[in-house]
């Protein structure tokens, strides 16, 4: 299976760049660069390969630098910005689920207990995966 890179935000990148160019003289660069918009724009600009003429190869112009610095993991066949964001979100969520806190609401505690019960191979092999009356058969003391 072939591996490939995709950059779904090419149009968005170009739209932002054109908008900035059109309003450049009225922009307060100090405030803009420190803003979320400025940081996102810098990230988009870092994807552009200015050595390529956009009239010759627009895709390589808009995404060339991103392609050069992005590698595809061995256990995957594609990488794109959306998948990259999903991977980061998943990692952050797993970190939150594994973090214990006495300040957690009961609903958050229940989610964490249920998540950990799915990871407990010994418990999974001993008990069926059933839910009765809206309550998991796994209990906090089982984990």
TrEMBL record:
Positions of transmembrane segments: none
Highest rank taxon of the organism: Eukaryota
Pfam family, one: Peptidase_M13_N
Gene Ontology molecular function: metalloendopeptidase activity
GO annotation (BP), single: proteolysis
Positions of the Peptidase M13 N-terminal domain: 54-122
Protein name in UniProt: Peptidase M13 N-terminal domain-containing protein
């Amino acid at each position: 299976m072939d591996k490939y890179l995709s950059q779904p935000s090419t149009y968005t990148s170009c739209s932002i760049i054109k908008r900035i160019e059109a309003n450049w003289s009225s922009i307060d660069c100090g405030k803009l660069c420190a803003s979320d918009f400025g940081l996102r724009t810098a990230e988009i600009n870092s994807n552009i390969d200015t050595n390529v003429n956009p009239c010759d190869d627009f895709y390589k112009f808009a995404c060339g630098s991103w392609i050069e610095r992005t590698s595809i993991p061995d256990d995957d066949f594609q990488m794109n910005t959306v998948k990259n964001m999903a991977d980061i979100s998943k990692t952050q969520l797993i970190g939150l689920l594994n973090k214990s806190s006495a300040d957690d609401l009961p609903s958050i505690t229940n989610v964490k207990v249920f998540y950990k019960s799915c990871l407990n191979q010994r418990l999974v092999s001993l008990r069926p995966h059933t839910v009765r009356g809206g309550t998991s058969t796994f209990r906090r003391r089982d984990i």
